[in-house]
């Protein structure tokens, strides 16, 4: 499937610089001047809950500090998820969780840009690992068309656009779609989440061998696991998960 690549024109760079002069970067958390051209100050950047010690497979943060890196959580030891590896930038805790609500329900595009950059930072760091293999494309978790109409945008796709520019890995948001408008997962337990997601996605194009699914937050992993299995049935051999935040 052809993948649309974005090229940056000189005019685009000029417009960005002009906007930066008109609207200087301002911290989205405290209102102080932003650092390094971003809407975040150094103090608030230090307050963000970095992922820390976590399961090497599903990125579930370990609650006991000092638990060794490279270890698996109990669930991954007993029943490993279908995806190869989950990379998460943060724990889903304040103040990051407020920013995620801003991008999900308050249409704050400057916050999406900032969180996309922070996720790209984490992925750039992960790409330094010797076992890192870049996927052929990034697949944002699709929204159902009805929810897309209500919200006006898919926050996972918008985050993926920022990561695409930074990592030079194309977004492919047309290879699969959401076929059912599922109930919000937050109100359901793990078993009901899986039932809720049954047949929720379908592949609509040929898939490369290796993909990364991008979602804003991974909670139980039910959504990304279901989409992984759908992509695997569609011919993809390796699916990684990239997410901004992982819940405890
Ligand atoms: Zn600040
Ligand atoms: Zn795990």
Molecular structure report:
This protein has a single domain, classed as Rossmann fold. Helices cover 37% and strands 14% of the residues. The chain has helices at residues 10-22, 42-47, 74-78, 96-105, 109-126, 145-151, 155-167, 190-197, 222-233, and strands spanning 86-91, 137-140, 176-178, 201-203, 210-218, 238-246. Strands 1-6-5-2 form a 4-stranded parallel beta sheet, sandwiched between helices. Helix 9 links the parallel strand 5 (210-218) and strand 6 (238-246). Helix 4 (96-105) packs across helix 5 (109-126) and helix 5 (109-126) packs across helix 7 (155-167). It is globular, with a radius of gyration of 18 Å. The chain starts with 9 loop residues before the first helix and ends with a strand. 34% of the residues are buried. One zinc ion is lined by residues 27, 29-30, 32, 41, 43-44.
Write the layout of secondary structure elements.
Elements lengths: L9 H13 L19 H6 L26 H5 L7 E6 L4 H10 L3 H18 L10 E4 L4 H7 L3 H13 L8 E3 L11 H8 L3 E3 L6 E9 L3 H12 L4 E9 L2
Helix pairs in contact: 4-5, 5-7
């Amino acid at each position: 499937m052809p993948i649309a690549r974005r090229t940056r024109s000189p005019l685009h760079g000029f417009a960005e610089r002009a906007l930066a002069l008109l609207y200087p970067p301002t911290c989205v958390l405290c209102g102080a001047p932003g650092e390094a051209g971003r809407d975040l100050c150094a103090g608030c950047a230090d307050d963000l809950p970095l992922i820390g010690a976590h399961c090497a497979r599903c990125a579930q943060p370990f609650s006991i500090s000092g638990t060794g890196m490279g270890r698996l959580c109990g669930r991954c030891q007993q029943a490993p998820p279908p995806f190869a590896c989950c990379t998460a930038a943060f724990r889903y805790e304040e103040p990051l969780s407020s920013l995620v609500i801003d991008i999900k329900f308050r249409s704050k595009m400057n916050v999406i840009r900032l969180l996309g950059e922070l996720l790209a930072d984490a992925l750039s760091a992960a790409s330094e690992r010797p076992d890192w293999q870049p996927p052929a494309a990034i697949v944002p978790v699709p929204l159902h068309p009805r929810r897309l109409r209500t919200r006006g945008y898919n926050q996972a796709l918008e985050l993926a656009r920022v990561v695409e520019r930074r990592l030079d890995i194309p977004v492919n948001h047309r290879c699969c779609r959401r076929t059912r408008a599922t109930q919000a997962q937050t109100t359901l337990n793990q078993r009901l989440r899986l039932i809720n997601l049954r047949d929720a996605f379908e592949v609509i194009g040929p898939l490369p061998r290796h993909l990364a699914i991008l979602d804003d937050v991974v909670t139980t992993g039910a959504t990304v696991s279901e989409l992984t299995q759908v992509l695997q049935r569609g011919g993809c051999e390796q699916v990684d998960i990239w997410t901004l935040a992982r819940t405890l």
